[in-house]
Amino acid sequence: MRKILCCALFVAFPSFLLASASIEESDFIPRVINFVIFLAILWYFAFDSIKGIFTTRKNAIATRLQEVQDNLHKAKQERENAQKRLEESKERAKEIVSAAKQEEYLIRQKYDEQIKRDIEILKHSLEANIEFEHRKAVQQSVENLLNELTKSQNLQLNKEDYVNIITKRIS
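^ ATP synthase subunit b, sequence as received from the core. Prediction below:
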């Protein structure tokens, strides 16, 4: 009520100062009284409905604000969870890379050892083949020589020479 009276005085004060006629000649006071009565009637009948409108609006705004804050909180939680999952994924990726490097090293060691064994086997095989071919060549040459000697009538060999030639052929 004080606010209404202060507003009325604030509106009426300039007219008091600047009025060329006196207050008794104007209808200002009846108008102010009518305005105050109008406000009192409006206050009496419409206060609860206006208060209800503003209360409802205030509650709706508070509800929407709470929903927005809840959504903001959920978004922050989801962001934090996503950050945690990202960090976990980074750690897992580091572990996977480390495990892959270690596995690559172990596989490389295994294949290096296998290659060394294969090379040794090939060397032994090659040496055996060389020796076999050498023996084969010696036997072939001894056999050719024996064939020539047996076919030729000019050369006379005794039994010991034949035994030496045959033992060379066998070995």
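The two ends are 138 Å apart (CA to CA).
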